[in-house]
Amino acid sequence: MHGWVPPAAMVLGIAAITGGSLYLTMRYLKADQQRTERVRAARQKYKDLLGELNECKGLLSFIDSESLPHAEKLVEEAKTTADGQRLSAIGRELFGISDQLTRLMEKIDGVAPALVLEASQLDPWAEHEEELKLDAVRTGLGQVFEMTGDIRAIRRGLIRKAERKAQVIDGLRKTVAGVGRE
Predict the structure, then answer these.
(1) What is the CA radius of gyration of the chain?
(2) For 47-64, how does the pLDDT look when each residue is reduced to its tens digit (9 = 90+)?
(3) What is the DSSP letter of 182?
């Protein structure tokens, strides 16, 4: 009876194996649920930030289609007017457009990709980006890191456009200031 196992021991062995399997399955399901919740939170924050960036894009389009042509008309008017008060008013209007652009750039700058990482409970302030990326991939959150890359790219493009518009407005302001000194 060398290979014989008493029935009670066999039942206990099967119960232990089943219990261990259930325990490991429950741990896996809990980890998967946590990962899903973290990704869901990151996606929601990503959508919120994309909404903010789209709003900024709309404001930038408005400035491009309405404010810049208006500013150019003001400069043409400034070149033909001799009224000092009107020149001063034109300068204030151009300053207002410039201020709009500054506030828009601040708003764009406030849309931080780190907020997506925080929403997924990743450490956005890791010492090195590679370390952060490895941590995201290791925890099954690599897609969250890709979302931050999207936000960065969109922000960068909007900031560049806003900076170019601000340079145009500054040039127009200098032109009006030069007209006022003549």
Answers:
(1) 30
(2) 999 999 999 999 999 998
(3) -
Q: Specify the amino acid at residue 65.
A: S
pLDDT at 182: 59
Task: Say yes or no to pLDDT of 1 above 50.
Answer: no
- Side chain identity at residue 108, one-letter code: I
Q: Label residue 78 exposed, middle or buried (CB < 10 Å: 0-12, 13-18, 19+).
A: buried
**Which pair of tokens denotes residue 158?**
């909007």
* Residue 92 C-alpha from the chain's centroid: 32
The owner of tokens 């828009």 is: 104
Q: For a pLDDT cut of 70, what percent of the chain falls above it?
A: 92
Give one DSSP letter per residue of 105-138, joined into a string.
Answer: HHHHHH--THHHHHHTT--TT-S-HHHHHHHHHH
Q: 61, 66, 98: which is closest to 172 by C-alpha?
A: 98
Place of tokens 């560049």: 160
Tell me if residue 81 falls in helix, strand or coil: coil
Q: What are the residues whose beta carbons fall under 8 Å from the beta carbon of 175, sequence distance 6 or more? A: 75, 78, 79
Give the pLDDT confidence score for residue 57 in this predicted structure: 93
pTM of the model: 0.74
Total residue count of the chain as it appears in this document: 182
Q: Is 152:113 a contact under the CB 8 Å cutoff?
A: yes
